[in-house]
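Incident log, entry 3
Record: NUDIX hydrolase (154 residues)
Problem: checksum mismatch between cached and fresh output.
Input:
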Amino acid sequence: MGIRNSAKAVIVQDDKLLAIKKQDKDGYYFLLPGGGQEHGENLHQTLQRECIEGINVDIEIADLIFIREYIGKNHEHFEFDSEVHQTEYMFLCKIKEENKEIGNGIVPDDGQIGVEWLPLSEFLNYRLYPQTVRKYIIDYIAGKDLPVYLGDIN
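Fresh output:
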């Protein structure tokens, strides 16, 4: 199995982060909007498509703020993710003004049950994956100088 590229949107508005909501045996969890790059797409095209499919919004893409790798065999979900190696490119994004119907898009993620705004003041209390990125996002919004490449984290 090869390395999969994925583009993710970090959308912060009114001190809240937009996230995809899912549920498993342990309760609710959240993911950044976005998804896998298809052959022939650049990362911006991937992110535009994935945001329309997943959260029903057209976005403006700004800076690349983080790159993280996920090598499944090194993390807590290794039982079912041991073959996964994914590189995620996280871009700061804004929702274009004309969008009014934020919610599940035309092709939501498997198991997606909704879209939610998570308050940054309570951000660390949410099970958002990758979990380590929660602190990086908070620090980025606060204006701290951070590395772009975060390594193999979850």
